[in-house]
Amino acid sequence: xxxxxxxxxxxxxxxxxxxxxxxxxxxxxxxxxxxxxxxxxxxxxxxxxxxxxxxxxxxxxxxxxxxxxxxxxxxxxxxxxxxxxxxxxxxxxxxxxxxxxxxxxxxxxxxxxxxxxxxxxxxxxxxxxxxxxxxxxxxxxxxxxxxxxxxxxxxxxxxxxxxxxxxxxxxxxxxxxxxxxxxxxx
Length: 186
Prior knowledge:
Strand content: 15-25%
Largest sheet: 7 strands, mixed
Radius of gyration: 15 Å
Mean pLDDT: 96
Structural class: alpha/beta
Number of domains: 1
CATH topology: Rossmann fold
CATH architecture: 3-Layer(aba) Sandwich
């Protein structure tokens, strides 16, 4: 079984904020794959279904960003899912809005959700899709920025990048990750 995890924060006030773009991708995959997110346990909201014969689990950890690894580890242990079948989708301050970058491993780069994931998995070697949200301007604090909504002029870019990220996730179910990485990182 493959597991695709979008990082974000639970609650209405965080919907469609920069920090929740991972959740947005999982919701798009839920729609595309017709896999309802209807199970709430193991500190997450998730659904299990099939896409082109491949069993897929879509997960939104409900632990808040800084503790994301707790839910990921719990779900992976419960369903006996290996690291090679994990894909984590999250926001990245170091990429411009509208850009995505696929990687097989790497540091947390200051991202608390990834720090938690690395701590709970005991490795930095897992597949990921980083979605650019850019850095705050005009002295705005990083927490205020990431918990804020996208500006009106960024809305179309974000809609496009959510679709592109979902396309990459879909491709990961059909081809080796390294091939998908090469295709989408151009």
